[in-house]
Amino acid sequence: MSTTLKPYLSAVRASLTAALCLENFESQVVERHNKPEVEVKSSKELVLTPLVVSRNEKEKVMIEGSINSIRVSIAIKQADEIEKILCKKFMRFMMQRAEHFFILRRKPVEGYDISFLITNFHTEQMYKHKLVDFVIQFMEDIDKEISEMKITLNARARIVAEEFLKHF
Questions:
Q1: pLDDT of 53 over the 80 cut
Q2: How many Cβ atoms from other residues are within 10 Å of residue 22's Cβ?
Q3: Band of pLDDT at residue 13, cut at 50, 70 and 90
Q4: How far from chain centre, in Å, is Cα 4?
């Protein structure tokens, strides 16, 4: 992990750890329903003010908390058009397989690239520190993956250009 990334990730880790104090809370509107309040927003008093941890304008995390769920939305750094396309394709690939990632949402929040929804049921079934570790590890690895894909893409483009220009 780079030294510039460490304070950002430690701030996200501390914020997530604090926000993961979730409890079972049934709906105040419909009897015997338990929906994530951060999604349905049926009562203003149950939803906390969103917290944004930002490294710069393009790289940020928004943590929206409520009494029984939190939504973590991540905006990934995209320096140029190639990274934007690679990020969009990679996130689409991940979201199509959301059922394999229990906390991944199929649609991200507007303005962000990917979103996770953690409910009280997830914290009851899984360790809280492991959920936080997963999100932090995902944030670390996604930058590496996109950089590797960009390097591979540039190498393939160079080979194709060389082969094409051999004929001239």
A1: yes
A2: 22
A3: very high
A4: 19
